Amino acid sequence: MQPVHRLATVLIIVAWILGAARAGHPQAEALEVNPDLSAEVTPEDRAEISPESAPEPAPVASPSRPPVGTPPPLPEGFRTYVLPRAFSVHIPADWGSEGSEMERSAVITNYPTDRTTPQPGDIKTEVQFLSESPNTAISRAVDAVVATGYTVTSYRFLPVNGILGLRLQLADVPLEYPYQFMTYIGYGSYGTAILVSYYHTDTPETRALLEQIHGSFVPVYR
User: Fold this and answer.
1) Which DSSP string corresponds to 6-20?
2) What is the pTM of this model?
3) Distances in Å between the alpha carbon of 218 and those of 27, 84, 125?
4) Less crowded by CB within 10 Å, the N or C end of the chain?
């Protein structure tokens, strides 16, 4: 693998990449399959992060029809959670969910949604489908990650049901949940999906489960 790019530079460029995805821009297609954009982040990469060196995202034309993608088959023991005029995701059948059509957001948990104090083993996932373009939404999210100084353990570009996305994993977060699992998916001027899962115990099984949930996101335009 080639040396890891400076994290801030790579992530800020993501705004342009995700906006270009599926809009017919050749560089977006090339980046989608570039294996060098999947990496573990070393201490050197976390040092001296400065977003000021990154270029401004280029404006990108939107596709003529809303990009949707095709969700994977529903796994056994899962159900499809649908928020009308927003999105759908596959979640374990016994998990709780609360959503707001007005805000186009939902909270999905493996514990009763009325419990407010986290406990070991808890997993909470927040899903938003923002009306903002990726250029705006992803830039703001990247700025927030850089500003906190939290440990980014890995990042990679990946297709989410045929749409280009970005996956980040954070550790040692000094909040209620020490781990965060994030996915950003750009749909041009139609909006930006942001999925963030918070959890206590980082295991391969937990990450695999979150991959299933995040990887099932599909916009719902009606």
Assistant:
1) PHHHHHHHHHHHHHH
2) 0.77
3) 23, 12, 16
4) C
The answer to the question of residue 67 being in a domain is yes
Question: Which of 5, 188, 198, 64 lies closest to 119, judged by CA?
Answer: 198
C-alpha closest to that of 70 among 133, 154, 163, 2: 163
Instruction: Look up residue 82 and give its two tokens.
Output: 């649908």
pLDDT higher than 50, residue 185:
yes
- The number of domains in the chain is 1
| pLDDT for the residue 103 | 95
* Domain around 71: 7-219
Rounded Cα–Cα distance for residues 189 and 196 (Å): 21
What's the CA gap between 54 and 11, in Å, rounded?
Answer: 9
What confidence score (pLDDT) does residue 177 get? 93
- Our measurement of the distance from residue 171's CA atom to the centroid of its chain's CA atoms, rounded to an integer in Å, reads 16
- Distance, in Å, from the CA atom of 135 to the CA atom of 47, rounded to the nearest integer, reads 25
Decide if 1 is inside a domain. no
